[in-house]
Amino acid sequence: MTQYRGLDKPKGRSFFLFWKAMFVAAMLALVAFFWVASSSVEYIWRWNRVPQYFWVNEAADVRAEAEGDVTIIDRQGNEQRVVVRDASGEEHTHLLPGEGKVLVSSGDFAYRGDVLGRYQLNRPGILLEGLWVTLEVSVLAIIGGIVIGVVTGLCRISINPMLRWGAIAYIEIIRGSPLLVQIFLWYFVVGTLINALLEHVGLGGISPLWYGVMALALFTGAYVAEIVRAGIQSVHRGQMEAARSLGMSYAQAMRKVILPQAFRRIMPPLAGQFISLIKDSSLLGVIAIRELTKATREVVTTSLQPFELWIVCAVLYLVLTFTLSLFVQYLERRAIR
């Protein structure tokens, strides 16, 4: 008869039911703790004000730019036109959306700043805009990090001393300095030099967003390079020898045999690195990029609602990272089949 010890012993249904109940009890206790703690704090919760920072739905006024007579009120396509002629005879055109309401009549006299019309404004709020910037920056940095990491990882195992030493120098420099310092260097040093050069030749400067993306991509690329290097070296060298014996070149064997096996093994650490990248994008607020964290900070400053807004900010980051985690798990299942 087989003897089971420790973790080898089969577990019955009651074992799993008990520990599932313990998990639920722990979650309920955690919720109760935060409920009691928040109730003891002298703070007025205003959750009803949070939606306005996701979507703005408010009345907007169209005001007269100059003092004069209202001469023309007509419709041009999907817009309404109100023309005001000042004392010098110059006409000032004011446009309203088609569904807007004109509050003056032809022949009326309007003073500068008077309301000529009103319409309903519907647009994304500051939190939704910040979430979109975070998503945009993260996707671009992930793509750049993958490209830089794969190329650097291949150079890291190259027999060419120049490529190998260059890859090692890049990896050690990037991993040995804080991301915040690298963002400052990209924005204040590299960005200043490049924009000054572009302005000197008559071209416009590059947006700070792209310097932030480059800082994140290069930072992530260094870690991805080591992950790729470890994944390639984890594949038995007999695979390369077998591929070369079939007549494949080194590049063909790497592309068709080694890398597909390596990528299946490095997906979990890559997912962790990209999740960290999404959270690290919150540092871009220091160079005036209004990503999710900076947008939340601005709203907290004006609304004085730190509890609700920071909780919402954390939940939005959780949605992004959890979605990425599920996507990587889906790719893992597809790769195993």
From TrEMBL:
Gene3D superfamilies according to UniProt: 2.40.50.100, MetI-like (1.10.3720.10)
Name of the featured protein: ABC transporter permease subunit
Species of provenance: Nitratidesulfovibrio liaohensis
Topological category with respect to the lipid bilayer: Multi-pass membrane protein
Localization annotation: Cell inner membrane; Cell membrane
InterPro entries: AA_ABC_transptr_permease_3TM, ArtM/GltK/GlnP/TcyL/YhdX-like, MetI-like, MetI-like_sf
Record family assignment: Belongs to the binding-protein-dependent transport system permease family. HisMQ subfamily.
Function statement: Part of the binding-protein-dependent transport system for glutamine; probably responsible for the translocation of the substrate across the membrane.
Domain ABC transmembrane type-1, residue spans: 131-328
Record keywords: Amino-acid transport, Cell membrane, Membrane, Transmembrane, Transmembrane helix, Transport
Membrane-spanning intervals of the chain: 21-45, 137-159, 179-198, 210-232, 309-331
SUPFAM superfamilies: MetI-like
